[in-house]
Amino acid sequence: MNEAEADFTKFVRERGSGLLRFATALTGDRHHAEDLLQAVLERAYSRWTRIARRGDPEWYVRRSIVNAAKDGWRGDHRRSAVLERLGAEEEYAYAPFDDYVTRDAVRRALHGLSAGQRTVLVLRYWEGLSEAEAAELMGVSVGTVKSQTHRAVKALRTSLELREESVAKPAGRKP
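Structure (tokenized):
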């Protein structure tokens, strides 16, 4: 194994699970995210020497994931599946019923957003990027990030408020 292969293998070993979580959050589907990440890493492997020489290979791979996800959204108009839970440690963890209800409501609300709005929320609030960093990663202006964030948060609030109202009023009873 040469030095570039060893460096690439180390990068994937150290950052692979984080990149998969990132891709899953963007696509809303764990299986699609795995395929997307594999395709991006295959392309990165053949160019790894140049990518590593630039100094920030993780940024390059994340940008490639965002671009590949956008390409998928343009070519495939099917809606993504609801976001899956990540990590095997969550599979058997105890969570109160209210937590499941809340998690389900948020997933449904996120599912109702456009792909661009969901991407902005993932970059800004999940990844903790600034508006400028998110704009650079998405290849859009800072103003687009601001407006998409505003619209996405407003849509989430509206969706979650409507769900809360429908849950709070039992069917068949008059107020």
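Helices lie at 3-27, 30-46, 48-54, 57-75, 97-111, 115-126, 131-138, 142-168. The chain has eight helices and no strands.
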